[in-house]
Design goal:
The structure is a single chain. This protein folds into 2 domains: 269 residues, MetI-like (MetI-like fold, Orthogonal Bundle); 238 residues, MetI-like fold. The two termini are 46 Å apart. It is built from 25 helices and no strands. It is globular, with a radius of gyration of 25 Å. Helices cover 72% and strands 0% of the residues. By secondary structure, the protein is mainly alpha-helical.
Length: 577
């Protein structure tokens, strides 16, 4: 670690930029290397190390011969592959429907289609558990719920695959929608002139152009499913369907840091699966992408008389996939006890008030809010000079680190949490104290993982910025830091603010990192929801989830207000609509 720090500092000093720019570059490099890349590299070194007997690659050999590890790997591959089928089917259908038909309310429907990306996985899993439970507030009154005492059908490998497919469906949706935005109107008009109807145009012209992005989105959904923790934890653990992420959690939770070497090998498997998927995606895009002449993008078909039917069908699908589970979650939060029917007489806010009265839950809210706000503010503070030096000043070191900064976000969260434990479990050099078991290690993990959520939109502003503005200030003698503060920051502020709110939305309910890094006194909201459900307190878990969802919705509305006028392209539910 010390060598990396010294190397980053020397690289910054070699830049020889005036006004302390070299120090800023060194600090940014230290941020990326020390919080993200070095922990991941340290994890890889641990996985390739010898076992207790000193045999080379002994830890990998043990994992390969472990029946539990092989079963978890098989289940991970099977559930992830099944989830891809769900993601591709739903994501492609919704993207084509919303992208090719000029319908009222497309922004609202697009927001709902992307909601699984904004709702934490443990809350989404809990909502579906309540929807299909024997006391379901939605299905029980219709006589469709399982009988009392019957096992929830979602506690199975198929349930894990189904729910992960819904959760990662937005990845396919976004990929297909981006492809639809590149379809030139002239191409569709030519097909119309040739006598083709809308269905034939979609099948023969638009679908082939979208196929590379559909496949790329499918691979990205597979990589995300491999690293998913919330859904396998809430559905797979009670269903006795272990996956790699839950096996890592259970071993660390049961045996502690002494099994770090063994679980590092399991993490290596996750990295390998996700890495192969992302490499395949990159190769596929290069080989199958079809060059299309630039032109006015196709604005969609007018559904005409079919407008009403199309709207009804879309709202019905979105209602079943998203509104019904959330309604079931809300219903569970409002009943006095699990198993009671929700009526006007039985509805109560007691679960909500009891939840808010619990000092541990209040502390978890305070911890999550403090950590997420700190991560958002620091990420924005780093992203602004980082993007300027990388994209405008084209500083060589930061241009290389700009690409590598995505690594902590791309790898499964369980892997990053393990890497943080390996690096920050020993006492920090010079301080003699370890940050493991304190809020600091959670903040470090959030800073490493969520920086790209701010860096990418700010980097987009830097790439689109008129170079003459910065050049004129440079000629006038303004140093780099002043140009960043006076010229670039006002232009990039809306994108940075929107990205920072996305960080808060994501980090506030985060579970994958927190499940392995929290300790007594550092509980987070995501951890408490998981713990309440594991303890059998479904009404308490539902109440806390509803409160968290209300905060997520409020933050989404705030983000929409911030970016709608100045930077709508940073909002996935407005971009391209």
């Amino acid at each position: 670690m010390a060598d990396l720090t010294a190397s980053a500092a020397r690289a910054g000093l070699r830049a020889r930029l005036p006004g302390g720019d070299g120090l800023v570059i060194a600090l940014i490099a230290l941020y990326v290397l020390g919080l993200g890349l070095w922990p991941l590299a340290r994890l890889l070194l641990e996985a390739f190390g010898p076992d207790d007997a000193g045999r080379p690659l002994g830890l990998i050999r043990e994992a390969l011969f472990s029946r539990a590890a092989r079963a978890a790997l098989t289940n991970t591959l099977a559930a992830s592959a099944g989830s891809v089928v769900v993601s591709v089917t739903l994501g492609t259908a919704l993207a084509l429907a919303l992208g090719l038909m000029r319908l009222p309310g497309r922004v609202a429907m697009t927001f709902l289609a992307l909601a699984p990306m904004l709702i934490p996985s443990q809350i989404m899993a809990l909502a579906w558990i309540e929807l299909f439970g024997s006391s379901s507030p939605i299905l029980a009154p219709l006589g469709l719920a399982p009988g009392a005492g019957a096992r929830n059908p979602l506690y199975s490998g198929a349930g894990v695959a189904w729910l992960m497919g819904i959760e990662h469906m937005p990845l396919v949706f976004l990929a297909v929608r981006a492809a639809l935005g590149a379809v030139p109107a002239d191409l569709v008009e030519a097909a119309r002139i040739a006598g083709a109807g809308p269905l034939r145009i979609v099948a023969r012209v638009i679908a082939p152009l979208c196929l590379p992005q559909i496949l790329a989105g499918a691979i990205l959904a597979f990589a995300a499913a491999v690293g998913n923790f919330g859904v396998p934890a809430l559905l797979g653990i009670p269903g006795r369907f272990p996956m790699l992420t839950t096996l890592i959690y259970q071993r660390l939770n049961g045996f502690g840091p002494q099994v770090l070497g063994q679980v590092a090998v399991l993490a290596l498997m996750l990295i390998g699966l996700a890495g192969l998927a992302l490499l395949a995606r990159s190769a596929l895009i290069r080989r199958l992408s079809v060059p299309v002449a630039a032109g006015r993008p196709f604005a969609g078909f007018d559904p005409g008389r079919g407008r009403g039917g199309a709207l009804a069908a879309l709202w019905a699908v979105l209602g079943v996939l998203l509104v019904a589970p959330i309604a079931a979650l809300l219903g569970t939060a409002l009943v006095p006890a699990l198993g009671m029917r929700l009526t006007a007489e039985t509805a109560t806010l007691a679960n909500v008030t009891q939840t808010l009265a619990d000092p541990v839950i209040r502390r978890a809210f305070a911890n999550s809010l403090g950590l997420s706000l700190s991560a958002a503010a620091l990420s924005a503070l780093v992203a602004l000079p980082f993007a300027w030096f990388a994209q405008i000043a084209r500083q060589p070191l930061l241009r290389r680190l700009d690409t590598l900064a995505d690594a902590p976000f791309v790898v499964p969260g369980t892997v990053l949490a393990l890497a943080m434990i390996l690096v920050f479990l020993p006492p920090l050099p010079g301080l003699g104290k370890s940050v493991y078991g304190t809020p600091v290690i959670l903040l470090f993990a959030y800073l490493a993982r969520f920086l790209p959520l701010v860096l990418r939109p700010v980097g987009g502003v830097a790439q689109a910025m008129e170079s003459a503005l910065d050049e004129a200030a440079r000629i006038a003698g303004a140093p780099a830091l002043r140009r960043i503060a006076r010229i670039f920051t006002p232009l990039a502020a809306p994108a940075a603010a929107a990205g920072a709110v996305l960080v808060v939305m994501t980090a506030f309910n985060e579970l994958t990192l927190s499940a392995l890094l929290w300790s007594a006194g550092t509980e987070t909201v995501g951890v408490m929801i998981f713990a309440l459900q594991q303890q059998g307190n479904s009404t308490g878990a539902a109440a806390l989830s509803v409160l968290s969802l209300a905060l997520v919705l409020a933050l989404a509305l705030l983000t929409d207000r911030i970016a709608r006028r100045s930077a709508p392209w940073v909002l996935p539910w407005r971009s391209g609509v």
